[in-house]
Amino acid sequence: MSYVFENVNVDQIEEKIKLRERASTDGKNNLPRASSETFSICENEAIITVDELRHNQISRAINFLASIKNKIIDSTAELGQKHFFIDNLKNRIEETLNSARGRLSNLKDSYSTQDKDIRNFKLENNLDREPNTLTPNKILIGICIVVILFIVETYLNGNLLAGSLSKGQKGGLAYSSAIAGLNVLVSFAIGYFVLKTFHHVDQTKRIFSKFGLMIYLIFIGYLNWMLGAFRSVFKSTGKTASERFETTSSKTEAVDKVLSPSTVIDPIFPWTVHLDPMSLILVFIGLSFALISLVDGYYFDDTYPGYGRVGKQRSHDKEEINRIRENLLREVTLIIKEEINKTGDKRSLILQETLRKKWINSITDLENTFEGYRRFADQIDDALDHTIGEYRTTNSMFRTEDAPQYWRDEKGKVKTRYYNLRETKKDPQHVFKDYALLYLNKEEIEKKIEFYQNKIQEEANNFINDINLYNSDINKRVDEMRIKYNVQ
């Protein structure tokens, strides 16, 4: 908002200088004299009074203008400067490309080293295929299979053995978890460490692995067979293991069982026990889960021992190289799109905040203040003319001598316009010299607004065009990098 000048009250001016009283007194005394060429004391006091009012309003207006002067200067400078710099974008893109280039270079060197190790491994072990390395999905699937098999077997065997043990369900779960650990966890380890060695180039290792696997299969088969026999004996006798041990007659009878196992029924010698259907299911579950875990361990990582471990780092390097290659263009494009969006936002911000809220409001306030002073000066001019005219009219009514010389014009006629304020006091550009250079009239303001709008819009458009041209160049460089670091 602009500064609002006070309205000039003629009656207050006339009352302050006691115009009518002094005009009648001067008229009775024929003052000023007919030969006088200068204003009377009362007229001069009217001029001084009005000038004091004018100076008071000027001082207040200057305080107001001082508050917007810096806004006009700062906003004008900001609107006139360059707002969009492509060097900032280029620096960000170059940092991204250099970072990607450095990582790709290191990864490719690592990949080449690992690739040589794999080729050497192939030659040493007579292999002609690529390693089948572990991935997070493969690890998750392999572990899930082991965990599920362990839980299922523990639960099923626990229920099947519950009646055969003195502790019932808890005892069945305890024994079944131990058996499940052998069937599942140990079988997985045998599959991973022993079964893979069947393919080893070293014949000695192959022989030892086959011998070890045979021993384990005999052991796991016997263990599950004995478990089934154990349950079958309980089913036929109705006695738990502890009850059967307590009813054993003597150490001699136990020795006889060992010496002549075919004449007795004892789960320790499962071939002496006839397995019922549920016992067979118990044996089948144990052997099946052991076999599945064995196969799971065999296919966990590469089937050739140590081959998957050799190819793991190369596989990781390859995945990381491909990830960087695939994401590089997306990352660069994202930076460019972000810069284009920021350009639009910045352009709108400059037009809205700097141009409209700061510059237009401030320069309009300055223009309105100047125009307000012109109207105020005209009021002062008219007020003084009216006041002096009242003085002379009243004075003339009481005079006996001719009117003073200065009341007449060059032709000797009485003036009808009694006072004219000097132009230097009426012109705001002279009165407010410190702010005259900032002043623009309404037409100039409209032209300046159009100029700034076109300038900023054109600058933003040129900046976006420069970005698009730079983007084309960057796309070529990205394609070159992707080709250079391709390890497919």
Question: Which helices and strands, and how do they pair?
Answer:
Elements: H1 10-16, H2 19-28, H3 41-80, H4 86-125, H5 136-161, H6 168-193, H7 203-237, H8 241-246, H9 251-259, H10 277-299, H11 307-398, H12 423-426, H13 428-431, H14 433-436, H15 442-484
For the biggest sheet, the summary is: none
Mean pLDDT: 86
Can you tell me the number of structural domains?
A: 2
Poorly predicted segments: 245-263
Strand residue content: under 5%
H/I helix tally: 15
Distance between the termini: 70 Å
Radius of gyration: 55 Å
Q: Tally of extended strands?
A: 0
Order of helices and strands: HHHHHHHHHHHHHHH
3D shape: rod-shaped
Q: Which structural class is indicated by helix and strand composition?
A: mainly alpha
> Percentage of helical residues?
over 70%
What can you see in these coordinates?
There is one protein chain. The chain is mainly α and 488 residues long. The protein has two domains: 10-90 and 324-484, no CATH class; 135-300, no CATH class. Helix content is 76%, strand content 0%. It contains 15 helices and no strands. It has helices spanning 10-16, 19-28, 41-80, 86-125, 136-161, 168-193, 203-237, 241-246, 251-259, 277-299, 307-398, 423-426, 428-431, 433-436, 442-484. Helix 4 (86-125) packs antiparallel against helix 11, helix 6 packs antiparallel against helix 7 and helix 11 packs antiparallel against helix 15. The longest helix has 92 residues, at 307-398. The protein is rod-shaped. The two termini are 70 Å apart.
